[in-house]
Amino acid sequence: MTETERIEAAAERIAALGASAPVSGRDPVNQAMVNNWTEALGDDNPVYTDHDFAESSVHGGLVAPPAMAQVWTMRGLHGTRADDDPLGAMMAVLDEEGFTSVVATNSTQTYHRYLRPGEHVAASTRLEDVTGPKRTALGEGWFVTTRTTWSAGAEVVAEMTFRVLKFRPSARAAAPEGARIIDAPEYADGVLRPVISRDTEFFWQGTKVGELRIQRWGETLRHPPGPVDPGGDLDAKPDYVVARGTGKVYSYVVHHHPKVPGKRLPFVVALVELDEGVRVLGELIDADPADVHIGLPVQAVFLRVDDELTLPAWEVAT
Amino acid sequence: MTNVEIGTTLPPMMIHATPTFVISTALATRDFQDVHHDRDAAVARGSKDIFLNILTDNGLVQRFVTDWAGPEALVRSIDISLGVPCYANDTLTFTGTVVDRVTVDGEQRYVIEVTGKGSLGDHVRGTVHIARPEVTL
Prior knowledge:
heterodimer, A: alpha+beta, Thiol Ester Dehydrase, Chain A, CATH 2.40.50.840, 2 domains, five-stranded antiparallel beta sheet, five-stranded mixed barrel, 14 strands, B: alpha+beta, 23% helix, elongated
């Protein structure tokens, strides 16, 4: 079996086990933990903490913040997962295959009613979906979705769909620490200045601080950035990820003629496929054209033309 | 908040995510993962610093909406997706817009879209459903 087949088979087996046995919270819903929570988060809503206000409110008494639903059943400092916990089982399978890092990506919570101090809640979780392998900004990984139900006695009081990305960290895991920004005032004369629109502003803001920012629509990266979701969802809105800045030459040209103001000929312009999977164009600096070839590993550098413009470029990877 | 119409924007909320804030919220949500309170451990795992946990994002999105909607607004659901991390010493700015009115189980609800943005970009985007029993929609 291939790695993907093994993971998919394990996911099917774990999902077929259904929901875990309910695990009770350490403490009942209680005022002390509500007070700690509202104090830490700066939430001064009096229905959580002011007895008199709460009595005369729509709740008729003190209630816990709905967003604390998950807090009541957190495992705590020395807690361990139950043997039948499907998320733990799926994490173990992915650890085994080398997808050792984890990051939470989505949480959808529905609150059927407010909880009151003194109530005991228990959580039960089942595995809903495992999707992958996907190339993401963090590295190759699998999205694992679980569904948790909180009950007080037999009554379901809250539900959550929770998604994590379990990924294989890339060699350079974090955003570019100390990305190389080179002063390049000699470019100022002849440079073609980009038209910066609301769709591309984030990209050019990023180059100024040494970040190669790639537009993201849901889980899909897109470059150059555009105004509409590539999947055609007209309601979708993009954000961006900061690329690690490493990739390989996908294609290139060596420019011999004509002369370009502020530049010595010949120079190399490379289309680079980033480790994240999208392709970005830029000059490959400090490279002998004879040494450049398709597949050459490169890393991003940033050419600071002036206060307004910093261009992304490439250099041969060190 | 007497007249709420689709397109109404919420007053922005700024959160200074000091190390104290990151740590006290992680502990108040009973999240003892080291990346939320131990800087050395966070750096060793490839992060720049300790960072905010997702249970706190949930709470901040809730607070942002009820600070505007009033203490008796009933929060029915919070749906969030995370973008870039919020590291210690960053500042988040929450903005939001009322985008829809829906009826669920016979109850009228407002749908509010929320974004929490830090210096690295969008940290959290979410959708919150609230009901307001004291107001006839």
